[in-house]
C-alpha cells in the first residue's frame, strides 16, 4: 500500500492524511425521510426581528470571491446595519449549526454544491441587484508546461469530470464523519466505471510525483481526493496541498504545484484567473454551482433587500 500525504496549510497546521493506493443543488433534499435540521415548527422569525437582532453576515476567508461579493452586496443594498464577519468555511458551518440549534437568525455566505443544503433547511436570498452574479462553473487549471512534462497526469486531470450528485455523495460522507480519503475511496470503489473513463488510454507511470492544490472547501476536498485516487491508478505518487485562495493560484503560476480542480469561475476566482498565467482545462462538474447569501427557512425573508434595517 502506498501512503500519500495531504498537507494542510490553510491555517498554518501540518496534517498527514493517508490515501490508500487503489483507489445538490438548492433543493435541500438529502434522500432520506428525516427533516433537515432547521425545519422546525417553532415559528418564523419576522423580518422586523431579523433586522433588529442581526448585525453580521457570517462569511468565509476574505480572499474568496463569495466574500468579495458579500461586501459588494452590503454596498449595493445599503446594508449599513450589517458587516461581513470573515473566518473559515468550517467556522462558518459551526456558526450556522449553532444558530439553527438555537433557532436564531443568521445569514451566511453560501455556495453549492455543499453538504449544508442537505443537512439543513436553507434557502438562498433573492439578489435583484445581481451582486453575486449568475451561476458559476468549477474548472480544472494546471501550471504551464504540465502537458509536455507530465502528459499522462495532464490527460487524467483533463479528463476528470463528474456530477453534482457524485460530489454530494462524497461531501455528505465526510460531513457524517468519514475521513476524506476513505470517503473518496468508497466512491471510487462504487464508481470505477467513471474513473475508467478518466484513465482510459493513459499510459502508466512508475511512482512519478504529481501535486494537486486546493482550497479547504468541502467540495474541493471531495473532488481532489477522488482525482488523487484516479492518478494513483496510473502510477502517480500524489500529494494534496491545502492553501488559501491566493496561494493556490500563485503556486500553479510558479510551477510549485501541478494542477487544481478547485477554480470557481467566472466570479469566485475571477480576479485570480485574470492575473495568473495558468492553463484552463475547462469545466469539471456537471451542474450549476451558485454563490449567494443563505438563511434558515424559519427566517421570514426572501431577498437580500429584506436585510436592510428600516
Summary keywords:
310 residues; 12 helices; three-stranded parallel sheet; three-stranded antiparallel sheet; 36% helix; 2 domains; disordered N terminus; elongated; alpha/beta; D-Maltodextrin-Binding Protein, domain 2; single chain; Dipeptide-binding Protein, domain 3
Could you give a quick summary of the protein structure above?
The protein has helices at 47-53, 65-76, 89-101, 116-119, 146-149, 151-159, 164-175, 180-190, 192-199, 218-233, 245-254, 270-275; strands spanning 6-8, 56-58, 83-85, 108-112, 122-124, 137-142, 162-163, 209-215, 237-243, 259-265, 279-283, 285-286, 290-296.
Topology:
Layout: E1 6-8, H1 47-53, E2 56-58, H2 65-76, E3 83-85, H3 89-101, E4 108-112, H4 116-119, E5 122-124, E6 137-142, H5 146-149, H6 151-159, E7 162-163, H7 164-175, H8 180-190, H9 192-199, E8 209-215, H10 218-233, E9 237-243, H11 245-254, E10 259-265, H12 270-275, E11 279-283, E12 285-286, E13 290-296
Parallel strand pairs: 1-9, 2-3, 7-12, 8-9
Antiparallel strand pairs: 4-13, 5-13, 6-10, 6-11
Helix pairs in contact: 7-8, 7-10, 8-9, 8-10
Molecular structure report:
This protein is an alpha/beta fold. The protein folds into two domains: 6-22 and 137-287, Dipeptide-binding Protein, domain 3; 54-134 and 291-307, D-Maltodextrin-Binding Protein, domain 2 (3-Layer(aba) Sandwich), CATH 3.40.190.100. It is built from twelve helices and 13 strands. The strands form five sheets. Strands 1-9-8 form a three-stranded parallel beta sheet. It has a three-stranded antiparallel beta sheet with strand order 4-13-5, with helices on both faces. The protein has a three-stranded antiparallel beta sheet with strand order 10-6-11, with helices on both faces. Helix 7 (164-175) crosses helix 10 (218-233), helix 8 packs across helix 9 and helix 8 (180-190) crosses helix 10 (218-233). The model is unreliable at 1-35 (pLDDT under 50).
Amino acid at each position: 500500500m502506498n501512503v500519500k500525504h495531504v498537507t494542510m496549510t490553510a491555517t498554518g497546521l501540518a496534517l498527514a492524511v493517508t490515501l490508500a493506493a487503489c483507489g445538490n443543488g438548492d433543493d435541500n433534499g438529502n434522500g432520506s425521510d428525516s427533516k433537515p435540521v432547521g425545519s422546525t415548527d417553532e415559528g418564523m422569525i419576522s423580518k422586523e426581528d431579523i433586522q433588529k437582532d442581526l448585525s453580521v453576515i457570517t462569511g468565509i476567508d476574505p480572499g474568496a470571491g463569495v466574500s468579495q461579493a458579500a461586501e459588494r452586496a452590503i454596498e449595493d443594498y445599503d446594508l449599513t446595519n450589517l458587516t461581513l464577519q470573515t473566518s473559515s468555511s468550517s467556522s462558518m458551518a459551526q456558526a450556522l449549526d449553532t444558530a439553527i440549534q438555537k433557532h436564531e437568525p443568521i445569514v451566511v455566505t453560501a455556495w453549492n454544491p455543499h453538504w449544508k443544503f442537505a443537512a439543513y433547511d436553507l434557502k438562498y436570498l433573492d439578489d435583484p441587484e445581481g451582486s453575486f452574479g449568475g451561476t458559476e462553473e468549477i474548472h480544472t487549471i494546471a501550471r504551464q508546461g504540465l502537458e509536455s512534462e507530465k502528459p499522462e497526469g495532464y490527460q487524467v486531470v483533463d479528463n476528470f469530470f463528474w456530477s453534482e450528485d457524485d460530489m454530494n455523495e462524497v461531501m455528505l460522507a465526510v460531513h457524517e464523519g468519514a475521513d476524506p480519503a476513505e470517503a473518496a475511496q468508497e466512491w471510487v470503489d462504487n464508481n470505477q466505471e467513471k474513473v475508467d473513463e478518466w484513465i482510459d488510454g493513459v499510459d502508466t507511470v512508475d511512482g512519478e510525483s504529481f501535486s494537486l492544490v486546493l482550497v479547504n472547501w468541502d467540495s474541493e476536498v471531495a473532488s481532489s481526493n477522488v482525482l488523487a485516487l484516479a492518478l494513483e491508478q496510473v502510477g502517480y505518487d500524489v500529494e494534496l496541498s491545502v492553501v488559501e485562495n491566493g496561494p493556490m493560484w500563485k503556486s500553479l503560476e510558479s510551477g510549485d504545484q501541478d494542477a487544481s480542480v478547485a477554480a470557481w469561475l467566472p466570479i469566485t476566482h475571477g480576479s485570480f484567473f485574470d492575473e495568473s498565467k495558468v492553463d484552463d482545462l475547462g469545466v469539471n462538474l456537471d451542474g450549476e454551482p451558485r454563490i449567494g447569501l443563505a438563511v434558515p427557512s424559519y427566517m421570514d425573508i426572501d431577498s437580500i433587500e429584506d436585510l436592510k434595517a428600516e
